Amino acid sequence: MRARPLSLIQDDLVDYDKAMERMAELVGQRQRDERPDTLWLLSHPSVYTVGRRTPVEHLPDPAHGIPVSETGRGGQLTYHGPGQLVGYLVVKLEESEGIVDYVREVELRLVDALAALGLPAERRDTPPGSELLTGVWTVETRRKIVSIGMRQSRGVTSHGFALNVDGDLEPWQWAIACGMPDVDMTSLKRELGEATLDQVRPVVATAFEAS
């Protein structure tokens, strides 16, 4: 994996729509070479986000009271909430790189971070004709622990990953996540018995060479 040091921004809970406005500003700055490649670590209040290909039947029952926001990233429905570490990656790719190449790098860096936290994990290749298996999965229990959805515009990436740390997993059951009805979403706390955002943030930052 190539060296790719990033500038680190950290926040706690940030409203999703406000975060999208800030991310658009960061992307514009990177496209104009006004800022370096950046990793923004934060969390969101409870919200479902849907990609451009998300079928209506995958949406949650509105009776649960969690808002749904449309997003320009790739991928399908995902859930964000307290206790989840979100990482937005604003990175200018080389001409020889594509967004799929960079997503693979993101998966591998998160596998390294989870290994450092004591959880063996892996990325998966997608079999022909199957729903995309983008993300990171636990090796032993075969559950999904990281969701990834990204896009590229004028050579610069946006959006990123969501790593479940110690938040409530029940909202994942109220919709069809990642286009996979049978996916079993998990968290570091579920797998290891204990985990906190304060423990996980520096490990993830290190895995992305972010400071």
Describe the 3D structure.
By secondary structure, the chain is α+β, with helices and mostly antiparallel strands. The protein is 24% helix and 26% strand. It has four helices and ten strands; from the N terminus they run βαβββββαββββαα. It has helices at 16-31, 99-116, 188-192, 197-207, and strands at residues 7-13, 38-43, 47-50, 68-70, 78-80, 84-90, 121-122, 136-138, 144-153, 156-164. The strands form two sheets. The chain has a seven-stranded mixed beta sheet, with helices on both faces. It has a three-stranded mixed beta sheet with strand order 4-3-5, with no helix packed on it. Helix 2 (99-116) crosses helix 4. It starts with 6 loop residues before the first strand and ends with a helix.
What is the gyration radius calculated from CA atoms?
16 Å
Tell me about the largest β-sheet.
7 strands, mixed
Mean pLDDT metric: 93
Helix count, per DSSP? 4
Low-confidence stretches: none
What best-fitting shape do the alpha-carbon axes yield?
Answer: globular
Q: Tell me which oligomeric state these chains represent.
A: single chain
Tell me the helix content.
10-25%
Q: What fraction strand?
A: 25-35%
- Based on secondary structure, the structural category is alpha+beta
Distance between the termini: 18 Å
| SSE string, helices as H and strands as E | EHEEEEEHEEEEHH
Strand order of the largest sheet: 1-2-6-10-9-8-7
Number of DSSP-assigned strands: 10
